[in-house]
Amino acid sequence: xxxxxxxxxxxxxxxxxxxxxxxxxxxxxxxxxxxxxxxxxxxxxxxxxxxxxxxxxxxxxxxxxxxxxxxxxxxxxxxxxxxxxxxxxxxxxxxxxxxxxxxxxxxxxxxxxxxxxxxxxxxxxxxxxxxxxxxxxxxxxxxxxxxxxxxxxxxxxxxxxxxxxxxxxxxxxxxxxxxxxxxxxxxxxxxxxxxxxxxxxxxxxxxxxxxxxxxxxxxxxxxxxxxxxxxxxxxxxxxxxxxxxxxxxxxxxxxxxxxxx
Length: 261
Description:
This protein is 22% helix and 35% strand.
């Protein structure tokens, strides 16, 4: 035990740390070490192990992984015999694989992914991604303080225009869920779309607690005249970046920007 811990304990409690364990049957002081019996030590791990088991049970209810029959344990905690026993006990119908040096598996995978992002494909999207947009106002649903009028039409500001939902599988470098956007006003020379992520699968507004601002994507429309000013926008995931791709339909102009998340 660290000497500083013994000194601080005596200052606070007025007795030595060693003497405080004399009446404790599950713990004893031997030399300069604290000895804890196995049952008590295992109790330290009960809550974190149970939370991991509960989280896995929740994951296995989702459609994308409902038929999973193999669990691969990686990361430092995966080397714990207590956690290994808890996982094997809770999921007896599944095969549990624990690689050698499980604590280094994540690091090794990150290095391989850095050299070749396509080594992991498809990827399960960790967050929901979309744009902050103006959409048609929904009476009795949207907050009144988000209502505004443009060209005599009623809109709701700060709506979350979802492109990719959390938990969806995505192929690397695949442009997905293209959607069409229009400038609110004919006099606009550009479209500005703030990009947000969220831990929620179906966020409604970009100012919700789980939403996080990533950056702003701009599409220049200064050379596009007339009423046909539609812009088709999609998202592409590659490496650790999010790429946003836009095509101005009337001209075929392509615009792309990358964002880290």
